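Budget justification aside, the reviewers requested a transparent look at the raw inputs and outputs of the sequence design task funded under Objective 1. We therefore reproduce one unedited record. The lines immediately below are the structure tokens for a 342-residue chain.
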């Protein structure tokens, strides 16, 4: 099995370039992973898809204004794409410039001065040497890191719309986009339905857009991302399982968080608190230990996210759903519509 087994034609016109005026105006395509049955609807109807006592789990990471434009002290233009804040004075980032900067190169962004400390692969370590703090630099000069398939510049509206309403832990450079469909009214309706809420944190990295290499999927390795599955969430999951309720993951990032926590040494598939890095790559044939259902967006061809969804619901079911979605005018990718798979 290789990445071409997960290829499909995605017309540019199907890729959403703007969010809808209302978060909860998105369409929802429901897929029964056991029968392959499809039902068209709206995200607000998710309330009817869930039962009282079900546990829905959200990713509460917050997207940083991670795209920065500056110049070298020598004058050349530079684009810095933050990958991770390492500490109060150091960041890890990708850099676009006419020539790859060497160690010691000084980069100025507004009144902040950064210096290249080292490079490992495509990532540079930059150290803050003068001016505004890293946090202030991002707040003042940072741009929303929209995905590469959104062919426009970011706008002030993206600061809120490319962010979930429950975001609270800074650290992501890409949004957990399945959560973008939820607004306060939908959350209130779910709560009234008797659905329980839980939270994990996975700081989505820019590697989420990384293309897989040629060859057998078994030989592929994904980028590592920071994840935190707290004890309180593990207790909620254990209680939900005990009462026969479902654990519903909002997004592939939550799936990877929970399934990583259940794959720790000695866990034997039972979830346990986890804080660290995960590079979990779920593909057809892999077992799911925690997640019973998921809300997810429509993903890019050949992507690891499409492979994860296919592992959960079956490749034939997923590709049939995607064909239906294209014919029915669903919007794809980050600002697009949603699926419920149960």
């Amino acid at each position: 099995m290789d990445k071409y087994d997960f290829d499909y034609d995605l017309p540019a016109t199907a890729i959403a370039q703007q969010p809808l005026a209302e978060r909860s105006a998105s369409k929802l395509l429901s897929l029964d992973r056991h029968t392959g049955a499809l039902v068209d609807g709206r995200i607000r109807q998710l309330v009817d898809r869930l039962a009282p006592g079900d546990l829905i789990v959200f990713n509460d990471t917050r997207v940083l204004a991670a795209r920065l434009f500056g110049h070298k002290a020598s004058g050349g233009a530079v684009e810095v794409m933050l990958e991770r804040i390492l500490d109060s004075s150091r960041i890890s980032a990708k850099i676009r410039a006419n020539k790859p900067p060497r160690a010691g190169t000084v980069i100025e962004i507004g009144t902040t001065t950064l210096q290249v400390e080292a490079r490992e692969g495509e990532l540079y370590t930059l150290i803050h040497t003068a001016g505004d703090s890293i946090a202030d630099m991002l707040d003042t000069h940072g741009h929303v890191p929209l995905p590469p398939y959104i062919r426009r510049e970011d706008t002030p509206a993206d600061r809120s719309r490319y962010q979930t309403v429950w975001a609270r832990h800074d650290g992501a450079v890409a949004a957990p986009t399945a959560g973008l469909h939820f607004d306060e009214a939908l959350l209130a309706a779910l709560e009234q339905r008797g659905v329980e809420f839980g939270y994990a944190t996975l700081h989505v990295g820019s590697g989420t857009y990384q293309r897989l290499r040629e060859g057998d999927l078994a030989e592929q390795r994904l980028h590592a991302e920071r994840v935190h599955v707290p004890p309180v969430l593990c207790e909620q999951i254990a209680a939900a399982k005990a009462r026969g309720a479902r654990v519903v993951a909002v997004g592939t990032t939550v799936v990877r968080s929970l399934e990583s926590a259940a794959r720790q040494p000695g866990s034997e598939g039972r979830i346990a608190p986890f804080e660290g890095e995960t590079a979990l790559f779920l593909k057809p044939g892999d077992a799911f230990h925690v997640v019973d259902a998921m809300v997810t967006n429509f993903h890019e061809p050949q992507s690891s996210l499409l492979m994860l969804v296919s592992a959960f619901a079956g490749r034939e079911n997923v590709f049939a759903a995607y064909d239906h979605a294209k014919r029915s005018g669903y919007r794809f990718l980050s600002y697009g519509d949603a699926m419920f798979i149960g």
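Residues 79 and 207 are 17 Å apart (CA to CA). The first strand starts at residue 27 and ends at 31. Computational costs for records of this kind are itemized in the attached budget.
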